[in-house]
Design a protein that fits this description.
- The structure is a homodimer of 198-residue chains.
- Chain A has 198 residues and is mainly alpha-helical.
- In chain A, 42% of the residues are buried.
- Chain A is elongated and about 65 Å long.
- In chain A, helix 1 packs across helix 2, helix 4 runs parallel beside helix 7 and helix 8 runs antiparallel to helix 9.
- The model of chain A has no long low-confidence stretch (mean pLDDT 83).
- Chains A and B meet through helix 6, helix 7, helix 8 and helix 9 of A and helix 6, helix 7, helix 8 and helix 9 of B.
- Chain A binds a DNA duplex (30 and 30 nucleotides) through helix 3.
DNA sequence: AGGGCTGCTTACATAAATGTCAATAGCGAA
DNA sequence: TTCGCTATTGACATTTATGTAAGCAGCCCT
C-alpha cells in the first residue's frame, strides 16, 4: 500500500475541511477550531488549509457561510411544511431548536459574537426574516408575528446554550423548553387566526 | 512626583483586576480577557496577576465567582421586591434581562461553555433555583412555575446574545423581547393565582 | 530608623497558533 | 510517456498567551 497521499480537488478538500471544522465546533467549542486541529481530522497539514482558505479567518468565514446554509436549509424546510399545511406546530419548534442545537447554530452564533465577526450571520438573520414573512396566514399584524418569532428564536438559542444545564437543575425534562415554545407558538397562531377572521 | 507604584492590598488588587476583567469581558468578549490585557487596564503587569491569582485559569475562576455574585445579587433583589409586593412584573423581567446583558451574565455563560468550565456556573444556577422557589405565591404547581421561569431565563440569555441584532433585523424596538417576556410572565402569574384560588 | 514581609517588576522560558516559502509529487492533458 | 499544473508538505519565522525565577521596593512593625 502506498503511503502517498491522494490528491483531492479543491472542492473536495474544502468540503471535508468544513465538515471537520463544523464537528469540532459542535463537539468542543470554537476554541478548538484551529488550523492544526481541523487539518488533523482530515489527515492533512495546517499549511494545506492555508492553501485552500488563504488564512485562518478565511476558514472561519467559510465555516460561517457553510453553517448558515445548513441552518437556512432547516428553516426552509419549516417554511415548506408550514405552507403545505402538513407541518405541525411542534415540527416548526423542533426544526428551529435543532438548527441552533444539533446543527451548531448556537455555537456558531456565540463564536461570531466573540470574534466580532457578526456580518457572517446575515444569511441566518435573513432566513429567519423570510420564515417570519411566510409562516401562518397572510394579512395579520406583522408586529405581533415578529414578536412571537423573536421569542421563539431567543428561546431556541438560549436552550441550545444552557437548556441542558438549567432544566436539569430545575428538575424539568430536557425538552420542556420546546414544550413551552410549542405552547406559546400555538397560542400565537390561534391569536393570529382569530384576528384574521374578525 | 514619584514614578514608584503604590502598593495595594491583595484584596484591592484582586478587586481592581476582577472589575477590569469584567469590563473587558462585557466590552470585547472572552477572547480579550488575557493576563496582559487585564493587567494593562489597572496599570500592572501580567506577572502581577499571576502573583495574585496563581494562574490564568485561577483568574477565570475568580471572575466567574465574582460575576456570579453580581448576578445573584440582582436576582436576590428581584426576590425581595417580589416578596414585599412592591415589585412590578416588569421589574422582575428587567432585572433578569439586565443580569444577563449589562451585568455580563451572558458573556460569562458563553465563555464557560466554550472553555468547558461549567462548574463555575453552579452559583448562578442555584440562585435561579432559589428565585423560582420563592417567587409568586406558595402552594401552586411547581412544574408550571419552573417551566415559566425556564422560559424567562432562556429569553433573557438569548436576548443578551442576539437580541440587538435580531430585533433590529425584524424591525422591532430593542426592548420588544422584554415586552414579550413581561406579557408571558404576567399571564403565568395570573394563571398561578387562579389555580391557587380554585 | 531599620529590618522583614510581600507586592510588584523585569527578564527569560515555553507552548501553541498563524503564516511564509521552497520543494515534492499526484493527476490530467498533449 | 512526458509535461505542466497545482495540491500537498516540511522547515522555517512570528506573534501571543502563559508561566518561572530572581531581584527591587513599599509599607508595617519594632
Amino acid at each position: 500500500m502506498s503511503i502517498a497521499k491522494r490528491r483531492l480537488s479543491p472542492e473536495e478538500s474544502r468540503g471535508m475541511a468544513l465538515a471537520a471544522a463544523r464537528d469540532l465546533l459542535i463537539e468542543t467549542g470554537p476554541q478548538s477550531v484551529t488550523l492544526k486541529a481541523v487539518a488533523g481530522r482530515i489527515g492533512r497539514t495546517h499549511a494545506n488549509l492555508l492553501h485552500h482558505f488563504g488564512s485562518a479567518s478565511g476558514l472561519q468565514k467559510a465555516l460561517a457561510a457553510y453553517l448558515s446554509d445548513e441552518v437556512c436549509g432547516m428553516i426552509a424546510q419549516a417554511i415548506q411544511k408550514s405552507r403545505t399545511g402538513e407541518g405541525s406546530v411542534r415540527d416548526i419548534v423542533d426544526l428551529t431548536f435543532d438548527a441552533f442545537d444539533k446543527q451548531g447554530g448556537a455555537a456558531l452564533w456565540s463564536w461570531m459574537m466573540l470574534t466580532g465577526n457578526e456580518d457572517a450571520l446575515d444569511p441566518i438573520v435573513d432566513a429567519i426574516h423570510a420564515l417570519v414573512d411566510d409562516i401562518g396566514e397572510a394579512g395579520h399584524d406583522d408586529r405581533e408575528k415578529h414578536d412571537d418569532t423573536l421569542a421563539l428564536v431567543l428561546m431556541a438559542l438560549g436552550d441550545a446554550l444552557i437548556g441542558d444545564r438549567l432544566s436539569g437543575s430545575l428538575g424539568l425534562p430536557r425538552d420542556s423548553a420546546r414544550d413551552m415554545a410549542e405552547r406559546q407558538l400555538a397560542d400565537a397562531l390561534e391569536r393570529w387566526k382569530c384576528e384574521h377572521e374578525s
